[in-house]
Design goal:
single chain, 204 residues, alpha/beta, Rossmann fold, five-stranded mixed β-sheet, 53% helix, 11% strand
Length: 204
Amino acid sequence: MTAAKHAETKTSKASGRRVAYTRISTDRQTIYQSVDSLKAAGCDPIFVDEAISAVAENRPGLQKARDALQPGDTFVVLAIDRAFRSTIEGIVFLDQIQAEGIAFESIYQCIDTKTPEGRKWFIDMVNNAEYERAVISRRTREKMAAAKRRGIHCGRPFALTTRAIKHAHRLINDRSLPLNEVARRKRVSPLTLKRSLQREGLAV
């Protein structure tokens, strides 16, 4: 079978589906909104990566969407920054699917990558998304550094308050209770209790 005949056979078997993908890094309500928007655009199936950041390497939902795509399908996203981590990744992904006879559509940006203008716009938008993530990341690091210099804790809240830590310290030192027992009473692991005591400068 010639290459042209093979391509024709593949095209004849094309499903013509609108296969969608979205990445959600916030709450479940946002998932419902995104999925509803994709359904309204005629997409089925829809693959989702939930609570995954824009720069995460492991995105099983995106991989499942990629595996599901067939010649004649259209890969649909709400916005380009929902799909790609970097400019290079976006360009490589686009080249791969277009070589397989798969179209690309971004609903919010109204991008048609079958035209040179559409492809340029696609690259510009992927590049802008990567730049914006880098700027946000830099600002976050700067804010955290400034807070740390002022003794302000950033990130997840501590498991124990200062008052609870001091109480635990009294139980261990004054009442001679084992650290494991005190940790059980405080409903934390012994390691967490030990680190909390160290953070407050309390020896056991």
